[in-house]
Amino acid sequence: MNATTLPTTSRVRRTRATQEPAWVRWALIGLALAFLTLFLFVPLILVFYEALKKGVDVYFAAIIEPDALSAIRLTLTVAAIAVPLNLVFGVAAAWAIAKFEFRGKNLLITLIDLPFSVSPVVSGLIYVLIFGLQGWLGPWLAEHDIKVIFAVTGIVLATVFVTVPFIARELIPLMQAQGTEEEEAAVALGANGWQTFSRVTLPNIKWGLLYGTILCNARAMGEFGAVSVVSGHIRGSTNTLPLHVEILYNEYNFAAAFAVASLLALLALVTLALKTMVESRITQPKENANEHRSA
Amino acid sequence: MSTFKQHSILPGFNLALGFTLLYLSLIVLIPLSAAFIRTTELTWQEFWFTVTTPRVLASYRLTFGAAFAAALVNAVFGLLVAWVLVRYRFPGKKLIDALVDLPFALPTAVAGIALTALYAGNGWIGQYLEPLGIKVAFTPIGVFVALTFIGLPFVVRTVQPVLEDIESELEEAAAMLGANRLQTFSRIIFPTIFPALMTGFALAFARAIGEYGSVIFIAGNMPMVSEITPLLIITKLEQYDYAGATALAVVMLVISFILLLVINLLQWWGRRRSALA
Fold it and tell me: Is A55 helix (H, G, I), strand (E, B) or coil?
């Protein structure tokens, strides 16, 4: 430990016993960067290169075209419904799981994580099995002229399904680490449930909540497989941004496909930037958590 | 209530748990059970025949083979990236650390068309591989490339925190006792991070099996050759073969649940290891 604080001007060459030789270090760094460049950075750069290859005019024409605009509108609408729903769910689930002790808690946590392990295609299919024409509710819905599959409702449902775990799984460990003492003090001093939550719990979890919301939103706007099954790909009506990319690409309209794709890539970059900013704000009071457990 | 829940003076338990269970049932549990209940419309022979036709078997081989190879590559390079990010200092490290999560944030369709354009015969990388006789786009290798991309963050993000928590005293002791760096790594560090590495591998594998968006563009989707199982489900749906699609979905769901169980066991193993250490 002391070795690191020695003046670096000392003429004696030191090799630290717990550090690899410099050439090994640089070889490993080089190899890791080569892998990341090949698999991450080059594909990312290519999206913007292909989008702008035919000029800025073509780029903006592809984005302000009516079908693209309606896809942007639909994607924003779907996220604006799905994310708040999962936000309320995430807070409720985390409150029950983190602030109380009850049986079957671990099973409940596993169930919340379940959508992460289901293939997106299967996530879409299960809604077709319920709401589709041959589905359980299909005949009744057809009778009452309600469309779920091949309509916005189906897209929202599939998106909610694939994004269920994001906010809950962010809040549960955070709120478990924070314990219940502050809330108990608030209740003992006469605060009601809502006051306890909004004045004590919410300020403690706001960064974790924001973090989960950012990730949830990115997935909600970018989901492809599940939405693809329930959407029906009707241009200008049930076409989200990722589906619009697919349609343009399959029509060999590569410049437009990459132009729309670049919007989604920008969304991903903004997501990563916000995520990194918020990450540094989330401080988990680990020592407190240990005190609670031993108490 | 006395045995189900411990007493607490905090309010809102019934409301919060009730809402959680209602929401989970409506959004997740009832729809998922629909897949299992609908397959009972088939007899066991019909079900077995549907999920073992030669075309379906070929899709399993490709899906699991490519997912396994991709997860293996990610285990090796994910460990390397995690090691470099935790242990070494180099310019641009923070930026690279943040960008590792790109495959989580980038919509799969965007990844799919970007990788296809990159590895096509006239693409930035494809043009150098084509003369060597290596075709990536529209072949099973393309599936492997896409699955490697989407699984990349898992191993890095599971190994990184464990690597950060390793006490330097252990390594110093090993060095004092005469171990060289390679011995210290293989006997001290590697056993410590192994549960996390396996968890990351399993997570990447599980994600790769179900992946659809990034694969369909680059795969070429030829039956028997480069057709993944999730795509077969879509194909059956488009032919209005609901029973066939559901049967395949149930096979995939069962495999996902088994993997979820394995991942939970691995995480439990990792926690027990770190608790003992």
Answer: coil
User: pLDDT for A29-56, tens place per residue?
Assistant: 999 999 999 999 999 999 999 999 999 9
Q: Are B81 and B98 in contact (CB under 8 A)?
A: no
Q: Among partner residues B6, B96, B115, which is closest to A36 by beta-carbon distance?
A: B96
Take residue B29 and report the two structure tokens written for it.
Answer: 């549990």
CA proximity to A267, closest of A86, A75, A106, A105: A75
**A175, A100 Cβ separation under 8 angstroms:** no
Q: Locate A127 and state its tokens.
A: 């809604």
User: Number of C-alpha atoms within 13 angstroms, CB side, residue A224?
Assistant: 27
Distance CA(A200)–CA(A198), nearest Å, equals 6
Sign of CA dihedral A101, A107, A110, A112: negative
Cα(B64)–Cα(A107) distance, rounded to whole angstroms? Answer: 28
Q: Is residue B25's pLDDT more than 70?
A: yes
What is the signed CA dihedral for B198, B200, B201, B206, rounded to 10 degrees?
120
pTM, two decimal places: 0.91
CB proximity under 8 Å: B 41-70 to A: none
- Complex confidence, ipTM: 0.92
- Is B31 within 8 Å of A122 when comparing Cβ atoms? no
* 3-state class (DSSP) for residue A15: coil
Q: What is the pLDDT of residues A175-205, one digit of tens each?
A: 999 999 999 999 999 999 999 999 999 999 9
Report CB contact under 8 Å: B108, A224: yes
Amino acid at B203: L
Q: Which residues of A touch B115 (CB under 8 A)?
A: 43
Q: From chain A, pick out residues whose CB is under 8 angstroms from the CB of B117.
A: 46, 50, 254, 258
Q: What is the DSSP letter of A17?
A: T
